[in-house]
Amino acid sequence: MTEYRLGINISALKDNEPVAANAGGKDFAIVKIDGKIHALDGVCTHKGGPLGKGMVNEGRLVCPWHGGAFEIDTGRADESTPWVTDINVYRVRVDSTDGEVYIDF
Question: What are the tens digits of pLDDT across the range 38-65?
Answer without folding.
Answer: 999 999 999 999 999 999 999 999 999 9
